[in-house]
Each structure stands twice: as C-alpha cells, then as structure tokens.
Specification:
There is one protein chain. The chain is built from 17 helices and eight strands. α8 packs across α13 and α13 crosses α15. It has two domains: 176 residues, NAD(P)-binding Rossmann-like Domain (Rossmann fold), CATH 3.40.50; 189 residues, N-(1-d-carboxylethyl)-l-norvaline Dehydrogenase, domain 2 (Orthogonal Bundle), CATH 1.10.1040. An eight-stranded mixed beta sheet has the order 3-2-1-4-5-6-7-8, with helices on both faces. Helices cover 50% and strands 10% of the residues. Bound molecules: nicotinamide-adenine-dinucleotide (NAD). The site of nicotinamide-adenine-dinucleotide (NAD) has 23 residues, from α1, α4 and β6.
C-alpha cells in the first residue's frame, strides 16, 4: 500500500490524514508552523478516543491508526510517498513554492494533489516540471464525515494520474465525482443560489431569516435553512467563497455577493463561532411565520435558481448529470439531486418561473440556461 503524505495539518489536512491512516496507509502529516503539528496530534488523539467510546473503532484500531501516522515538521519526510495531498493556506504563490519543494523530494510516479477550494489546478500544476502528475482532490469539511470528494483534472493532468487518484479515493469508501477545473468546481458553484437567492428574498422584505429557513427545511426538505447554514459555515468564509466565485466568473451577476452578508461579516457577526450571525445564539430563537403559501413561494424561487445553476453546469460540461446530482446530495446533503428534482416538478415549470423572474426584475441573474430552453423545445427530461 502506498505511503500518503498530507501537507498542512489544519482543519482539512488533519482530517485527510485520519482518513488515509484509517484506510491502512502509512501517513506523513507535515506542517511548517510551530504548534500546528502538535495541535493536530492532540486533536486527532481526542477524535480517535471518542470513536472508541462510541464503539465505532476498537482500542486496537485506535493504536494502529496512530501508529501509521508520523507527525512532522521536516518536509523531507514526504519522500517515498505515492500520493501527496496539499491542504495549506489558500495562496497560489505559497502553494506553488511548496509543490516545487515536494517534487524535488518524491519519485517520478508520485501523484501530487491539491485540496484547494478556489484556485485553479492548472495554475498550481504549472509550478512543476512534471505537471501531468497534478490533480485536484477536493474534500468537504469535516473530511472524515462528508462522503463526497471532487476529483479535478487540470488541462495538464494525465489520464493515468486521474484514474489512479480516483481509484485511491474510491478505495477510502468516498463518493468521487469528476469536475472540470472551473471556479467552485461542482458544489461551490451550483450551491451559490441557496445562499444568494435566500439573501435576496430577505433583502426584498419578502420574509425574515427564520421564515426563509423554515420554508427551505419544512417544505423543501433541506437539512438546514440557508441562514442557519451560513451561520454554521461562518459568514466570513461563505462570503469569501461567493466573492471569489463572482470574481472568477468575470463578475457574472448570477454570483453577485450580498451586502447583507458583507455587513454581517464586517460587524463580526460571523455565525455560531462568534455567538451571533443572522441569529443571536445567546438569545431565544425567533419564530418563523409558518405560512405554507408564502413558504412555497420562497422554496420555489430558490429551487429554480439552484436547478438553473445545475442545468448550466451540465450545459457547460462541468460534470455529467449523475455527478452533478451526487455532488449536491453527498457534498451538501440536499434532499434530492437538482436535475432529478427538475424532472419531478417539470422542466417547463422551472423555465417559466425563471422567465417570469427575468421579466419582473430585468436582471441577468435570472437568465435561464440555454439547456432548459432546448429541453423544453424538444420535450426532454434529464433522466
Ligand atoms: N475549511 C474548509 O471547509 C475547506 C474545505 C475544502 C477545501 N479547503 C481547502 O483546504 C486548504 C486548507 O484549508 P484549511 O481550512 O484546512 O486551513 P487551515 O488554516 O485550518 O490549515 C492550514 C494549515 O496549513 C499550514 N500551513 C500554511 N502554510 C504552510 C506552508 N507553507 N507549509 C506547510 N504548512 C503550511 C498552517 O500551519 C495550517 O496548519 C485550503 O486550500 C482550502 O481552500 C478547505
């Protein structure tokens, strides 16, 4: 079994190291910052102890998993790896520098992957002599619990790198989908309207946070409402993802960030982690207006925007239809795949609602995907 190295022992790196070691690999977890590696080791020990308490693993497993990991501050320990996954700070220059260093330490056939959320894999790969060995392997937080992993070949990535990388992650019992090297890959692109359209509905005064969340949960079947979820993710992080995607798409108005969220971030109302976001976690939870007619209007408006985004991702060959649906159900727990959902409610109904919104607002953000128009013309369904 190949040795796996993980670069960066933060939130994502520590989780990825845990997965690889649990699946029997010898693991090298490296971080260059004082204290980071010690913190990762202490946290991982606690997590594994808790898994023993919950009887998910035995004490023997616990010891074996820890025994397979070396926690190191010496980057030379990555030598001999078959796969390196980088999960350091989201900065292209720093990532490129670290990639160059790794390439000088590993064998010819070692795959070097990045867990980046927002940089292009092509730009990271460009730093290497052998760029064809680079691929994106994008986990979701918390990595040991979220089943989805997006695999992203860059223009330089060889077919064998892609096949090998996918086979390794599949063997870790993850659900892999293949996504084009474009901003947000699948999940962080297709999910934008879940936040953006909910914020817009609030800004127009249609409903308050609690009511919008109630509608999405109770009528839509989503596990969390958009405002609950933004508070959970953190308004700083969620806003930055939106802004990055918006900029990367050359300011396409479909991805425009919201002033409401920007102000939350500026005020330090980051969500659960700061005690206050859209909700005040130190006070009583506000009551939703449980009006089903209003709820359906809210759900329908967010849902058609999500379906439009999923259809457009398919139209532009970001991924195949099965992978687009899997990505949203397994990466962000949507109750149904968006394209399957479109079939259920009728593609023509989705298109008509988008056309109505576009006419009403005159904004490009509501433009329907050409794929929806074509499908209605040809009387087709996604499945
Ligand atoms: N947090 C998420 O939800 C999430 C999800 C998917 C992908 N990602 C991506 O994963 C990567 C890491 O994110 P994170 O949330 O784990 O960050 P983090 O800040 O928790 O951890 C980053 C770690 O990298 C270390 N580091 C920084 N520069 C380094 C260097 N030059 N050499 C070695 N170690 C270095 C830091 O000490 C820190 O321990 C980013 O590219 C991010 O976009 C994050």
């Amino acid at each position: 079994m190949i040795k796996v190295s993980v670069i960066g022992a933060g939130t994502m790196g520590a989780g990825i190291a845990q997965i690889a070691a649990t699946n029997g690999h010898k693991v090298c977890l490296y971080d260059s910052f004082d204290g980071a590696i010690e913190t990762a080791e202490t946290k991982l020990k606690k997590i594994l102890d808790r898994l023993v308490e919950k009887e998910r693993i035995t004490q023997q497993d616990n010891e074996a998993i820890l025994g397979r990991i070396i926690f190191t501050k010496d980057i030379k320990d990555v030598s001999g790896s078959g796969l390196v996954i980088e999960a350091i700070i989201e900065n292209l220059e720093i990532k490129q520098k670290v990639f160059t260093e790794i390439e000088s330490l590993v064998d010819e056939d070692c795959i070097i992957a990045s867990n980046t959320s927002s940089l292009s894999i092509a730009s990271i790969a460009n730093a290497l002599k052998k760029a064809e060995r680079v691929v994106g392997i994008h986990f979701f937080n918390p990595a040991p619990l979220m089943p989805l992993v997006e695999i992203i070949p860059a223009v330089q990535t060889s077919e064998s790198t892609l096949t090998k990388a996918k086979a390794i992650i599949d063997s870790w019992k993850k659900i892999t989908v293949i996504a084009k090297d474009t901003p947000g890959f699948i999940v962080n692109r297709v999910a934008r309207p879940f936040y953006g359209e909910a914020l817009r509905i609030y800004e127009e005064g249609v409903a308050d946070f609690a009511t919008i969340d109630w509608a999405m949960r109770e009528i839509g079947g989503f596990r969390m409402g958009p405002f609950q979820l933004m508070d959970y993710i953190g308004n700083d992080i969620n806003y930055t993802v939106t802004e990055t995607v918006f900029t990367a798409f050359y300011f396409d108005s479909r991805y425009k960030p919201s002033f409401t969220q920007q102000r939350m971030m500026e005020a330090g109302y980051l969500g659960r982690k700061s005690g206050r976001g859209y909700y005040n976690y130190l006070a009583d939870t506000p009551k939703a207006i449980e009006d089903r007619e209003l709820g359906k209007i809210i759900l329908w408006r967010v849902l058609v925007m999500l379906i439009n985004e999923a259809a457009d991702a398919l139209f532009l060959n970001i991924a195949n239809k099965e992978d687009i649906d899997l990505a949203m159900t397994k990466g962000v727990n949507y109750p149904k795949g968006l394209l399957a959902w479109a079939d259920e409610i009728g593609v023509e109904n989705v298109l008509n609602q988008l056309k109505n919104l576009q006419t009403e607002y005159g904004e490009d953000r509501y433009r329907p995907s050409p794929l929806l128009k074509r499908m209605v013309r040809e009387n087709k369904t996604f499945y």
